Design the sequence.
C-alpha cells in the first residue's frame, strides 16, 4: 500500500497504530552497505519491516533482510529512532517503532522481492546522492560516524 513518511513534522496526522519493526544496516567486508529501492515509495532504504508474533527483534531483522534482499545476516549491534510517522491511503497512521540493527552478511545471494525494485551494495560515499527519506539517511550517517553501537 502507498505510504507517506512524516519525520518530526508538526503537520503529520495523529498516529492510530503502533507496529514494532526492525531495519538492518548490513555492511560487507569491503565496507559497503546493502540497500534496497522500495516498491511502495521508490526510495532507497535499509532492508527491514514489521515483527511477526512470536519473533525476536533480531529474528525480525534477519528474516526481513533475507526476504527483501536474499542476503543472510548475523546481527551484531542495535540502533533505534522512534520519531517517525507513516500515513497510509487506507487511513492508518502508524507511529514508527523501529530498531535499526547492525548486521554482517553470512550467506545468500542478492535478489529482489515484492517489496524491492532493486537491491545493491554501495560504498558509504555512494549513498550520499541516492534518493532516500531523512530517517534512513540519519541512520546511515550515524553508522558512518560510529554512533551505532556494536554489541558482541
Sequence:
Amino acid at each position: 500500500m502507498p505510504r507517506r513518511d512524516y519525520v518530526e513534522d508538526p503537520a503529520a496526522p495523529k498516529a492510530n497504530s503502533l507496529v514494532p519493526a526492525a531495519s538492518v544496516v548490513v555492511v560487507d567486508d569491503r565496507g559497503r552497505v546493502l540497500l534496497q529501492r522500495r516498491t511502495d515509495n521508490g526510495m532507497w532504504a535499509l532492508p527491514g519491516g514489521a515483527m511477526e508474533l512470536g519473533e525476536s527483534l533480531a529474528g525480525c531483522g534477519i528474516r526481513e533482510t533475507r526476504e527483501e534482499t536474499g542476503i543472510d545476516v548475523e546481527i551484531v549491534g542495535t540502533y533505534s529512532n522512534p520519531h517517525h510517522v507513516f500515513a497510509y491511503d487506507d487511513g492508518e497512521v502508524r507511529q514508527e517503532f523501529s530498531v535499526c540493527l547492525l548486521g554482517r552478511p553470512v550467506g545468500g545471494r542478492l535478489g529482489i522481492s515484492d517489496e524491492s525494485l532493486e537491491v545493491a551494495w554501495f560504498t558509504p560515499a555512494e549513498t550520499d546522492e541516492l534518493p532516500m527519506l531523512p530517517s534512513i539517511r540519519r541512520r546511515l550517517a550515524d553508522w558512518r560516524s560510529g554512533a551505532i553501537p556494536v554489541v558482541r
